[in-house]
Amino acid sequence: MVSVMANSATSNGMAPDAGLGVHFGSSAACVAFTTDGRTDVIANDLGDRVTPSYVAFTEHDIPVGMAAKQQVIRNSKNTIVHTKQVLGRPFDHEVTKEFAANSLASVVNKNGETAFEVDFKNKRTIFTLPETVEIFLKKLLEIGQSKAGKDCHDAVLAVPLNFTEDQKNLLRQIATKAGFNVLRLIHEPTAAVLAYDMQMEEDQSSGLVLVFRLGGVSCDVTVIRVADGLYSIVTGGSDYKLGGDNFTEVLLKHLQGEFKRQCRHDISDNKRSLAKLRRGAEMCKHTLSTVSNSHCSVDSLYEGMDFSTNVSRARFESLCNSLKTRCLQKIDEVLSEGGISKSDIEKVIVCGGGAKTPLVQKMVSDAFPHAKLINSIPPDEVIAMGAAKEAGILKSMKTKLIPEKDHQCQLEILSQAIAVKVRENREKNSYKDFQTVFTKSTPIPSHQKFVFSASSEESAFFLDVLELEDKPEEDLTNGQENLDKVLASVVMKNIAQEAAVSTSFYLTKERFLEVICQEESTNKRLTLQIPVR
């Protein structure tokens, strides 16, 4: 097994010429830039720091961003959104099929490639998905150059952790056609860690950071090990049926019920009315991110009837309890698959537009009471900020630019988690201590040290070294249902009862686990080597 490592060189000493950081999300996009050591997000022509990922076609032109989103009610069949979901996927892929079923515009097959059939300038026209993405990326370049200058083309683009090489290559090709000079593609969670310059903190030379991203249509959980200025992705997972749009949908259902109660009409089959109310629900949700009460008002919602109601933050949060549970389940699932306990996480970053909701931030914070929540940057700007900082790093290197194949280097990692149990006696069924020594995907070589106490019943120290199974477990620390294989049993005899035993564990490059036990008062020592996977 290997782990992807991202170079995290510091941002000091950057050249004054700008580098762009681009986060092209399924629902919204953000552009940031770094120049002369400073990083900031660039607002679009409307003054918004985030641009909706919408492209529309009309009889006159091609609106992009908010201009496209604002006319979606009257021009839905010619409006395209969420293209990132299916970028680089074949037309017969399951994700593409689901995308086509939910798309506002007509999705067609053009030589095995996903395309859209729209009315453009009074003519039925087909635009392929890459062509549509190119139109949107041109808008992002225009936004970037409005602040960084017309000569600025250099950019780092952030991509999802699970993007395949084909998807990355396609995005690079499209971005290049749109006018970008793509310096590098980096993973979104890595960009999130870069945004906070974690490698600069004196108190953090090594540790695990969890990145929780709630976008418009997806939820991503990633654990990154920060060690010696390098970021190693340990484990990660995504749920593509859970995102900020789900929170909007819950509020929409509530508002539908309120309208039915007030006006005795059901609008669930009226697409135009639903689209108008969904826009109201979205605005209401955004307002509740900053205040405790929001007023939702929609003129002429149905058959000339206006709709008006108030929603409290407490009411909204109660409606979202099931979504909150799904988010927490995804976190638990990813940690379990990586053999990581919540207590191993030192810091948590929240990002993504859906994470602006206070409910989400509090949920993540409560899930990791011993970790520090990092959320000082607006969640929907974090990834673009990190990508821009990477662009600044690369621009500062100039002729010393690290080739991308070396930037994403391979590192040997542990295939299975390693744990130990300290026994009270010679019997195998009585344990006094359990400790996870190395989580799954720990980089090799690695080192850990613990101090255990010897038996209180016998003048000996009994230690079992275990390889943990892959099945997800809710609580690794109980040590009861996680055992796959006993690798070795250590017995150190003739020592004082309850004596302190310093135990060091070394994962060597040759994939051996070296265990050194030393009784601290007498320096009595025992050493053994165990092959590991």
Task: Give an overview in words.
The chain is of the alpha+beta class. It has four domains: 8-189 and 383-409, ATPase, nucleotide binding domain (Nucleotidyltransferase, domain 5), CATH 3.30.420.40; 203-240 and 323-376, Nucleotidyltransferase, domain 5, CATH 3.30.420.40; 244-319, ATPase, substrate binding domain, subdomain 4 (Actin, Chain A, domain 4); 418-531, Substrate Binding Domain Of DNAk, Chain A, domain 1 (Sandwich). The protein is built from twelve helices and 28 strands. Strands 19-18-13-14-15-1-20 form a seven-stranded mixed beta sheet, with helices on both faces. It is elongated and about 90 Å long. It starts with a strand and ends with a strand.
Keywords:
seven-stranded mixed β-sheet, 36% strand, single chain, six-stranded mixed β-sheet, 28 strands, 533 residues, Nucleotidyltransferase, domain 5, alpha+beta, Actin, Chain A, domain 4, 12 helices, disordered N terminus, 4 domains, elongated
Q: What name is given to the CATH topology of the largest domain?
A: Nucleotidyltransferase, domain 5
**Helix content range of the residues, please?**
25-40%
CATH class of the largest domain: Alpha Beta
Question: Runs with pLDDT <50, length 5+?
Answer: 1-16, 200-205, 471-482
Q: Identify the strand order in the major beta sheet.
A: 19-18-13-14-15-1-20
Domain count: the total is 4
How would you characterize the largest beta sheet? 7 strands, mixed
What is the CATH homology-level superfamily of the largest domain? ATPase, nucleotide binding domain
**Span between N and C termini?**
9 Å
Silhouette: elongated
Annotated CATH architecture of the largest domain: 2-Layer Sandwich
Radius of gyration: 27 Å
Query: With helices defined by DSSP (H or I, 4 residues minimum), what is the helix count?
Result: 12
Strand-residue fraction? 35-45%
Derived from helix and strand composition plus strand pairing, the structural class reads: alpha+beta
Question: How much is the average pLDDT?
Answer: 87
According to DSSP, the number of beta strands is 28
